[in-house]
Specification:
Layout: H1 7-15, E1 20-21, H2 25-32, H3 34-45, E2 48-51, E3 55-59, H4 66-84, H5 89-95, E4 98-99, H6 100-108, H7 113-117, H8 120-123, H9 128-137, E5 141-144, E6 147-150, H10 154-175
Helix pairs in contact: 4-5, 4-10
């Protein structure tokens, strides 16, 4: 494989748990050499490189991804609260901008806050903003001023949540 000049940066970002998102030139290079990179990560680290139309990320067989679980719980409670307030939660998540303080208040007032209280949502580096900083670092959201916005990578988490919900509903229907 002829490595592009950005090889070290691509590998470093992905191994750090970051999503590489289009139109970032690193995404374009990863996509152009997708087969080489898939083989590289598989052979070198035992990870699977996934390249979607708008983002790339690594998948491992670790079952103890506590941070990912916490993010999915955060997303689920946020979607629930947006839905309860009459907003199209999917549209809000994919296109909207969120005020950090207002979002934290919305979550704290939720009847599901007790779930989030036991996660890094409430306990990350002492604050909700610390939690957002972690996921901003991973390119799942971007922060600016006192607001944040989800990146295209959030689609992966939404799909996961939908799959879990569908499996749960199927399980419930089979019990009846």
């Amino acid at each position: 494989m002829n490595y592009p000049t950005e090889h070290k940066q691509i590998v470093s970002n992905l191994l750090d748990g970051k999503f590489v998102i289009y139109p970032n030139p690193l995404f374009v290079k990863t996509q152009e050499q997708s087969e080489d990179y898939k083989e590289f990560f598989s052979e070198s680290f035992g990870y699977e490189l996934k390249i979607e139309t708008e983002y790339a990320y690594l998948v491992s067989d670790k079952n103890s991804e506590k941070g990912t679980r916490d993010f999915v719980l955060f997303l689920a409670v946020l979607c629930r609260e947006l839905d309860y307030s009459g907003k199209n939660f999917r549209e809000q998540i994919e296109l909207g901008t969120f005020d950090i303080v207002e979002t934290e208040q919305l979550l704290r007032q939720s009847s599901k806050w007790e779930i989030l209280e036991k996660t890094s949502v409430a306990n990350s580096k002492g604050s909700f903003e610390g939690f957002l900083n972690t996921w901003s670092y991973k390119n799942v959201l971007t922060k600016f001023d006192k607001q944040f916005k989800f990146t295209k990578a959030v689609k992966l988490f939404l799909e996961f949540a939908v799959n879990v919900a569908n499996a749960k509903m199927k399980e419930e229907n089979q019990k009846k």
